[in-house]
């Protein structure tokens, strides 16, 4: 397959459509521009701006909380309290995850025009300082899970392990997006457990609920696989040159047929999740049909050989699909109060 990829590179689109040389410019607008200059590289490491990096972590946890709240009939006060705690934990864990990714990827980032201006490659933060910063954020994030009980704390560890592995996965497999998908989707399980759901007990006593959670988890696993494969096309030709592996590299020139299939499976799994626990029309219309339609529009319109198109559609799809799944679950929860 690697040979096929190289052949496609020679005969494919002009590589200049992907190469976008960028020189570093300090932020001139937004809240980061008001910070002391010595703080800016550390904020950039955390991806707090723009906010998509943080919400990659938050959305799956919120899906799990709302799904469990619907089935348990949880009062709004409890749902809000647990959501607030998880949001705090997600903030610090997101920081740790993104910093760690930059620590591991720094030698590769230095070779890619779009990422060469990140804080570590440009020399604004040392790798040693970044590792220490990662540790402080990880400890703070895990501390938020302790008030939710040891079960939530323990069930968060597999997701963290997959996140830690993700930057290494790019070096050994063409499917790092699957690792990312599992890492993010396990937030669904953390949210469910935080609301009092016991996976082992539910599997024995209410297998349909366990199957619904599993279907939701698998659907949310596929979601990052889809959007990160699109996003990875931004740097696909540079990635080939430096040896970074991804589904964008493996399926270069023929990714869309696969992505259409993944969208169909994801949409089906969302529907199965709702069917197993008798969710209502608001869930099917908003969470299932709308999110599937948005993903379909993205695949129809995105130009995978245009880096700017990939970036724009990734952001549009991410916010609208995340909002649609949240909105459908929230509507279902509100109707059952």
How is this structure best summarized?
The protein has 337 residues and is an all-alpha fold. It has helices spanning 2-11, 40-46, 52-72, 76-109, 127-145, 150-172, 176-194, 199-205, 207-232, 236-242, 247-250, 255-276, 281-301, 307-336.
Descriptive overview:
It is a single chain. With 337 residues, the protein is mostly helical. It has 14 helices and no strands.
Largest sheet: none
The SS-based structural class is mainly alpha
- How far is the first residue's CA from the last residue's CA? 53 Å
Spell the H/E element sequence: HHHHHHHHHHHHHH
Query: Given the C-alpha coordinates, what overall shape results?
Result: globular
Strand fraction band? under 5%
* Number of separate helices: 14
| Rg (C-alpha, Å) | 20 Å
Output mean pLDDT. 89
The strand count comes to: 0
Task: Classify the helix fraction into a percent range.
Answer: over 70%
Low-confidence stretches: 1-21
Name the features.
337 residues; mainly alpha; 0% strand; globular; disordered N terminus
Q: What secondary-structure arrangement, pairings included, does this model have?
A:
Blueprint: H1 2-11, H2 40-46, H3 52-72, H4 76-109, H5 127-145, H6 150-172, H7 176-194, H8 199-205, H9 207-232, H10 236-242, H11 247-250, H12 255-276, H13 281-301, H14 307-336
Helix pairs in contact: 3-4, 3-7, 3-14, 4-5, 4-6, 6-7, 7-9, 8-9, 9-12, 9-14, 12-13, 13-14
